[in-house]
Design brief:
The protein contains 3 helices and 9 strands; from the N terminus they run ββαβαβαβββββ. It is α/β, with parallel strands linked by helices and 178 residues long. It has a domain of 108 residues: 3-Layer(aba) Sandwich (Rossmann fold). The chain is globular. The N and C termini lie far apart (47 Å). The structure holds zinc ion.
Length: 178
Amino acid sequence: MKVKQQSVYDPLEGMDEPTGLGTQTKKTIAWVSRHDPLPAQVKALQEKLGDIKIVHINNTYTNYRNVIDAVKALKAMHAIVVLPLSMIAFILDSKEAQGTTWLRAEMQSAHEGRCIDHYKEISNDRHNSVVQVQHQCGMFNPDTDVLMPGETTRHLRFRKFMVLKSIDLITEPFTGGE
Ligand SMILES: [Zn+2]
């Protein structure tokens, strides 16, 4: 079993555990992604599932079976996966994957057009010269948003979790006239 990099997000961390309620009562959720869950995503899972423990699996998988093994090893009933579609298709078709609800975080563009830089100038010395400038999209919400850097930055906002049911391949007969 290769589950090397794992970190656990316990929303109640630092709070006293109520007597008689151990970690056994928490529902384990596997978070298979390079990125950490956003605060809004943790909240959305708590609203649906109650007392949860999110285990972040940050491995780079090349085989879908390893993903299933890692999730099953955690005894997670729910798994959020950010993986290539072909791997998701294999997982959903796999017998071993049954018994787990496979979820996808639905992200949409936070706004139309390009991000507009929001310059936050912090000038706190007595000559009033700018000592720090922060660049950030003026529409950025740290609870729900991610910025995907690239040629043009993609600014995505978490909407909701969706249950993955199947990945469909749509085909039609080849006539040569396409
Ligand atoms: Zn933006």
